[in-house]
UniProtKB/TrEMBL annotation:
<keyword id="KW-0560">Oxidoreductase</keyword>
<dbReference type="GO" id="GO:0006099">
    <property type="term" value="P:tricarboxylic acid cycle"/>
</dbReference>
<dbReference type="InterPro" id="IPR032106">
    <property type="entry name" value="2-oxogl_dehyd_N"/>
</dbReference>
<dbReference type="InterPro" id="IPR001017">
    <property type="entry name" value="DH_E1"/>
</dbReference>
<feature type="domain" description="2-oxoglutarate dehydrogenase E1 component N-terminal">
    <location>
        <begin position="14"/>
        <end position="50"/>
    </location>
</feature>
<dbReference type="InterPro" id="IPR011603">
    <property type="entry name" value="2oxoglutarate_DH_E1"/>
</dbReference>
<keyword id="KW-0786">Thiamine pyrophosphate</keyword>
<dbReference type="Pfam" id="PF16078">
    <property type="entry name" value="2-oxogl_dehyd_N"/>
</dbReference>
<comment type="similarity">
    <text>Belongs to the alpha-ketoglutarate dehydrogenase family.</text>
</comment>
<dbReference type="GO" id="GO:0030976">
    <property type="term" value="F:thiamine pyrophosphate binding"/>
</dbReference>
<dbReference type="GO" id="GO:0004591">
    <property type="term" value="F:oxoglutarate dehydrogenase (succinyl-transferring) activity"/>
</dbReference>
<dbReference type="GO" id="GO:0045252">
    <property type="term" value="C:oxoglutarate dehydrogenase complex"/>
</dbReference>
<dbReference type="InterPro" id="IPR029061">
    <property type="entry name" value="THDP-binding"/>
</dbReference>
<dbReference type="GO" id="GO:0005829">
    <property type="term" value="C:cytosol"/>
</dbReference>
<protein>
    <recommendedName>
        <fullName>oxoglutarate dehydrogenase (succinyl-transferring)</fullName>
        <ecNumber>1.2.4.2</ecNumber>
    </recommendedName>
</protein>
<feature type="domain" description="Dehydrogenase E1 component">
    <location>
        <begin position="208"/>
        <end position="436"/>
    </location>
</feature>
<dbReference type="Pfam" id="PF00676">
    <property type="entry name" value="E1_dh"/>
</dbReference>
Length: 437
């Protein structure tokens, strides 16, 4: 660590930062109960805080950077190292997504971040085998620095990059943190589940290849590069049903729509091929032409461990993302129906509807970042008149949404998902080439 010419430590390298507040609170609480239970230097520091008041002359404060004085009375080297470890853990939670291994094409240029440099945090390679307190990390209380780094790298820098530290509700943040940080210790999926996943991926890829070879030259909005959407939706539906959901309303545009219709909602492939060949006749008796197959809605029932779940894919207009608020309105209406039914049966649970019907919106990366209706819909998401209790947004980024070859020419933000932070939504960036992720 570096000091200035007056022997002071920069504030971000001091243990007196908000990152270590929980550790210092715990230490001070121990001191309050029994002053002899803490180290002598800490006891002297706390004695000073208790009995002395500090006044400052505002006019005498110099301009410039803020520093924390380094004085031996403020803790031992061991305490400073412990504080540095807690800062390192927080760096992984806040910025680990920037170096996550979630780009299957490996086109993104990731520069090393000083946050993860041991020297920057006041640590060294000599500390790697030293035991440290893990703080609020969801693991055992004591681990070596090497183990802490390996664990944080697995959770926050693997095939899933996670943004959630912008969430202000501590209860929600801690719930997410506990779920994320217990992933490495969960058992892998069984061979049966993985075989089913392989079948779904093969079906998704096989359909795209067949359409490409049979209908050469026809306009096609392929899911190629994003086939993992199919096992993702299947797993989502099965888990939702197991947790009491009875209806799922899906909104999506052209990209991957045919694959979802066939492999998720169970539409007959023969009927789809008739639409490609101009032989499909609608219920009204009209023969539809053009790209109507990308606009048709569909509904079906799917068996899940918790019972039958009704799936409804909303009709899709040509204007990108305009289906989003339509789906939200449809879901809210269905939820109100469940609420009314619960009142009639004297159950009177206002949350009944939100537990029974959920919206799932599937976007392209270009549309999510570029269409203003996305932001408008998010802005209404927590209002009393329009809230549905939350939506699941899936963004398929198969690198063909924009007509530019470089994403830097397409938007001014690092990710296409930045707009979701306006409602403090957690964001997961997942490697599409890793079905297990």
């Amino acid at each position: 660590m570096r000091t200035d010419d007056r022997g002071r430590w920069p504030l971000y390298q001091s243990y007196l930062t908000s990152t270590n507040a929980a550790y210092l609170d715990s230490l001070y609480e121990t001191y309050e109960n029994d002053p002899q239970a803490v180290a002598t230097d800490w006891r002297q520091s706390f004695d000073t805080l208790r009995y002395e008041s500090v006044t400052t002359n505002r006019d005498s404060l110099p301009n410039g950077n803020v520093y924390a004085y380094h004085d031996e009375q403020w803790g031992t080297a061991e305490a400073r190292k412990q504080s540095a470890v807690l800062r390192l853990i927080n760096a992984y939670r806040s910025r680990g997504h920037l170096i996550a291994r979630n780009d299957p094409l490996q086109l993104a240029i990731t520069n090393p971040l000083e946050d993860f440099d041991l020297g920057f945090q006041g640590l060294s390679s000599e500390d790697l085998d030293t035991l440290f307190d893990t703080g609020s990390l969801s693991v055992r209380q004591k681990m070596t620095l090497r183990e802490i780094i390996d664990f944080c790298d697995t959770v926050y820098c693997g095939p899933i990059g996670i943004e959630y530290m912008h969430i202000s509700r501590m209860e929600e943040k801690r719930w997410l943190q506990a779920r994320l940080e217990t992933m490495p210790v969960r058992p892998l999926e069984s061979a049966e589940v993985r075989c089913e996943m392989l079948k779904q991926l093969s079906a998704a890829e096989g359909l795209e290849r067949y359409l490409h070879s049979r209908y050469v030259g026809q306009k096609r909005f392929s899911l190629e590069g994003g086939e993992t959407l199919i096992p993702l939706l299947s797993e989502l539906i099965q888990r939702a049903g197991a947790n009491g959901v009875r209806e799922i309303v899906i909104g999506m545009s052209h990209r991957g729509r045919l694959n979802v219709l066939v492999n998720i909602l169970g539409k007959s492939p023969a009927e789809l091929f008739d639409e490609f060949e101009g032989r499909y006749t609608s219920a009204s008796g009209n023969t539809d032409t053009g790209d109507v197959k990308y606009h048709q809605g569909f509904s079906s029932d799917v068996d899940t461990p918790g019972g039958v779940v009704h799936l409804a894919l909303a009709f899709n207009p040509s204007h990108l993302e305009i289906i989003g608020p339509v789906v939200e309105g449809s879901v809210r209406a269905r939820q109100e129906r469940y609420i009314a039914a619960s009142f009639e049966t004297m159950d009177r649970r206002r949350d009944e509807g939100k537990q029974r019907v959920i919206p799932v919106l599937i976007h392209g990366d270009a549309a999510f970042a570029g269409q203003g209706v996305v932001m408008e819909t998010l802005n209404m998401s927590s209002t009393r008149g329009f809230s549905t209790g939350g939506s699941i947004h899936v963004i398929v980024n198969n690198q063909i949404g924009f007509t530019t070859s470089n994403p830097l020419d397409a938007r001014s933000t690092l990710y296409c998902t930045e707009v979701a932070k306006m409602v403090q939504a957690p964001i997961l960036h997942i490697n599409g080439d890793d079905p297990d992720a």
